[in-house]
Amino acid sequence: MRSSSNPAFRNLPSGGTQTYGQYGPPVGFDQPEGGVPGYGPGQATAGAGDRPMTVDDVVVKTGLSLGTALLFGVITAIWAQVQLAETGKLSGALVGAMIGGLVVGLVLSLVMIFRRKPSGPMTLAYSAAEGLFLGALSGVFEAVYSGIALQALVGTSGVFIGMLVVYKTGAVKVTPKLTKWIIGAVVGAAVLMLFNLISTVAFGFNPLRGGGALAIVFSIVCIGIAAFSFLLDFDEADRMIRAGMPSKWAWYVAFGLMTTLVWLYLEILRLLSYLRE
């Protein structure tokens, strides 16, 4: 498969009527003796215990993951707003939930990425953890900038739907050249974020997140990169479906899409806060 800017989709095994390369067949695939007629030896088909993945599988699994994140996010956001309205500060329990969601989400994402295996429970747990973190953060932003969380949510949904339409209509083709550009942009943005974090902690200098003109430009660039990353995510999902990967791999697609959605929502939330100042 073509590389993706999303680390969740890097170096995945192929399935269906394609060869597996250095990773071997994914869990749930049986290697028939003599191969598949018409495709030569050494090919794989879905085992009796799992059928090939479909678009409906991806839609359902992604919907469940997104719904889980929204449920935990809305509850935590309301909790944060109530506390801020009553006491003017967050309780230790809520701060712990926010930090815990951030840490647990990061750990689960790294485990999923390096294991390269689908897991419904881990995907839903990741979504719940991100919901806790984003919900608490959104509640804090909402207390300062009324309506900002809903605006960020609508903006994120709009970008996602827009890029899905762009991909499905073929308005922008996912070519190897475009893929390299997007991957390079993601890596560049990540490096800049790392240096900005070091600069903030070590010197108190926060140019990319300080709310100035440079911060606004950087957030717009990151939103653009995240939006185009969806094209690669959609393309990888299409390739996995065409390759006949087992239906349980739809959970992995859902996880990959969730990571991009989380990044996009954070950047839109930041941008809106800068524009409100």
UniProtKB/TrEMBL annotation:
Origin: domain of life: Bacteria
Polar residues composition bias: residue spans: 1-21
InterPro entries: BaxI_1-like
Transmembrane segment boundaries: 58-80, 92-111, 147-169, 181-205, 211-234, 249-266
Name of a matching Pfam family: BaxI_1
Disordered: region residues: 1-50
Keywords associated with the record: Membrane, Transmembrane, Transmembrane helix
Cross-referenced PANTHER family: CONSERVED TRANSMEMBRANE PROTEIN-RELATED
Name used for this protein in its record: Integral membrane protein
